[in-house]
Amino acid sequence: MKFGSITPELIAMSVQDRHYKDLKKAILAVSDALNAELADLVDAGCKVVQMEEPQIHMLAAKGLSGDPVLNVDFMVEVFNNTVRGLRGKAEIWCHTCWGNPAGQRIFKTMPSYAPALDGLNRLDADVITFECCSMGGSDLEAIGKGMKEKKIAIGVVDHHTLQVETPEQVAALIRRALKHIPAERLVLSTDCGMGREGMSRRHAFYKMVSIVQGANLVKRELGLPEGPCLAADDRFSMVE
Ligand SMILES: [Zn+2]
């Protein structure tokens, strides 16, 4: 089971604070509370925890380094405090994306992850996710150069569009990624969650199928074992 959790700064920034009356104190208090709950969850057997999503890339893209609370260094401190003691018992993922309220983009032109890579490298996490499909893979070289140890999960399907990416399109993005990221550290994912109001389950389902089929195209080229994909097996297809 992979458990996704909101990050402390997003909770603290979203609620009315009648107790701490101080954003930094509120964030750290929520961080401690989340850490205790996540520790219980991991002790109960949860093997993968994904934090969604520290504001590191957003703040780095906006260049707001002077704020005493909303700055990259403090966001790194908060993340590491929230997951302290968990790594080793569970695989820790950090999700990043550029937002999708109601399936909409929130930037006129997509920002770059490049200014955020230093902060993301300092996270106590095993896997960092990067939105890549909607950005046309523009940051793949920077990500490959900047992230030398952690696993890198790239989004190979877009969460803003209903048109399902073909396996060939997915495979093309994977091939580009492999020029900069070694296969052993490359993980395939979606750009972001598709469960919000912008997309039906059917669209989301077939996008997942494309991820598996696209990966299989590349695995075949590399001589690696392919993953089963029952949804694309004629014996089980639901033609309407
Ligand atoms: Zn996201």
Cα separation of the termini:
32 Å
CATH class assignment of the domain at 2-157 and 185-195? Alpha Beta
If helices are DSSP runs of H or I spanning 4 or more residues, what is the number of helices?
8
Our estimate of the beta-strand percent is: 5-15%
How would you describe the oligomerization state of the chains in this entry? single chain
Radius of gyration: 19 Å
Give the number of DSSP strands.
6
Helices and strands, in order, run as EHHEHHEHEHEHEH
Q: Helix amount, in percent?
A: 25-40%
What molecules are bound to this protein?
zinc ion
Average pLDDT taken over every residue? 94
Structure write-up:
With 240 residues, this protein is α/β, with parallel strands linked by helices. It has 8 helices and 6 strands, in the order βααβααβαβαβαβα. It has a 6-stranded parallel sheet with strand order 1-2-3-4-5-6. Helix 7 links the parallel strand 5 (151-155) and strand 6. The radius of gyration is 19 Å and the shape is globular. The mean pLDDT is 94. Zinc ion is lined by residues 53, 95, 97, 192-193. Zinc ion binds next to loops.
Task: Offer a few descriptive terms.
binds zinc ion; globular; single chain; TIM Barrel; 8 helices
Outline:
By secondary structure, the protein is α/β, with parallel strands linked by helices. The protein contains 8 helices and 6 strands; from the N terminus they run E-H-H-E-H-H-E-H-E-H-E-H-E-H.
